[in-house]
Amino acid sequence: MILMGFKAKLSVPARKRVTNGYKHSMSITSEEIASQPDCWERAAELSTGLTAELPAPGERVAVVGCGTSWFMAQVYAVLREQYADQGETDAFAASEFPAGREYDRIVAITRSGTTTEVLKVLRDVSGTTRTTAIIGDPDTPIAAPNLVDDLIVLDFADEKSVVQTRFATSVLALLRTHLGHDLAPAVADARRAIAEPLPEGVVGAEQFTFLGTGWTYGIALEAALKMREAAGAWTEAYPAMEYRHGPISITGPNRVAWAFGPVPDGLAADIARTGGVLEASGLDPLADLVRAQRLAVAIAEARGLDPDTPRNLTRSVILP
Q1: What is residue 316's predicted lDDT score, i.e. its pLDDT?
Q2: Which CATH superfamily is domain 196-302 in?
Q3: Rounded-to-integer distance, Cα 284 and Cα 277, Å
Q4: pLDDT in tens, 266-300
Q5: Among candidates 292, 254, 259, which has minimal Cα distance to 276?
Q6: pLDDT digit string, tens, across residues 54-65
Q7: What values do phi and psi take at 258, rounded to 5?
Q8: Strand extents, DSSP E, 66-221
Q9: 234/307 Cα distance (integer angstroms)
């Protein structure tokens, strides 16, 4: 079954950016970041109509993806298994999927629908395991007849940019809603994350460590990836409780520890003793990821880089 999200014109604030004294049109990446609250509302609406297309409670599920999609798979796996108690759920980078392991369903997340490793997993399990693919562009190989059992198309969240932002978060909005989450508070927080200034001083920081606990660890991994991709920034990511077992040694003056979700007891004081800065917004972690995306773009532009053309990257990795 193919379930389309249908494209819709999304409201994006008209803005200008200034680089080296000259005004430029807002980057494509920034426009797509700003459109996320509207996309999440569309994804949540779409999710309410899904029944057999996404995992049912009790199914044993594997979720696969590459890059950003892998991190979204990790977030969903923890939410489904540990928070929603809907069944064993594993997440794999598609290239590391364990051939021969039995699952009731495999969910593939891929914006382009062309990623070589994801297509290989789906071909390898075709006819033996039920498969669901969540994509942005329906005009891709993954939509070929008989490759997947269920295809969910978030075409309204597809992107022109190389660096993923709104597609990945819209996938998570869809999956969270399917697990029973009310996305309205996250949408409201995302609008705040877009409208409010970034924390003072963080754009000029030397280094960033992103922290998460449970499902937000995957969010932390994704935030670090955005900073590397868009800005070439020095970033790391760790489980918040693991951070004190060595990684805290990297934190110091002009360096930031950014926590998604609740901060473990005593961690704020430990970071203060290093001279580093703790950033913890209190927003829904998905909305807080929007702030990290904005930060990545701001750092890129401050360094004279174009976030729309990140170094060494293409929109999709297609191998020979």
Answers
A1: 62
A2: Glucose-6-phosphate isomerase like protein; domain 1 (3.40.50.10490)
A3: 20
A4: 999 999 999 999 999 999 999 999 999 999 999 99
A5: 254
A6: 999 999 999 999
A7: -115, 115
A8: 89-93, 105-110, 130-135, 150-153, 207-212
A9: 16
DSSP string, 106-130: EEEEESSS--HHHHHHHHHHTTTSE
Q: Are 95 and 117 in contact (CB under 8 A)?
A: yes
pLDDT for residue 5 = 59
Residues 6+ apart with CB under 8 A from 301: 17, 19, 27, 307
How many Å apart are CA 112 and CA 114, to the nearest integer?
A: 5
Task: Give the amino acid at 130.
Answer: R
The DSSP line for 35-70 is THHHHHHHHHHHHTT-STTSPPTT--EEEEESTHHH
Q: Is the domain defined by 2-178 classed in CATH 3.40.50.261?
A: no
State residue 63's pLDDT score.
98
- Residue 309: C-alpha distances to residues 36, 39, 145, 313 (Å): 20, 23, 34, 8
- pLDDT for the residue 297: 95
Phi/psi class of residue 90: alpha, beta or left (left: φ > 0; alpha: ψ in -120 to 50)?
beta
Answer for the pair 45, 188: CB distance below 8 angstroms, yes or no.
no
Q: Which residue has the tokens 């033996």?
A: 128
Q: How many residues make up the chain in this entry? A: 320
CATH 3.40.50.10490 in the chain is located at 2-178, 196-302
Q: Is 83 exposed, middle or buried (0-12, 13-18, 19+ CB in 10 A)?
A: middle
Low-confidence ranges of the chain (pLDDT < 50): 6, 8-24
Helix (H, G, I), strand (E, B) or coil at 151: strand
Q: Which helix (H) or strand (E) holds 173?
A: helix 166-178
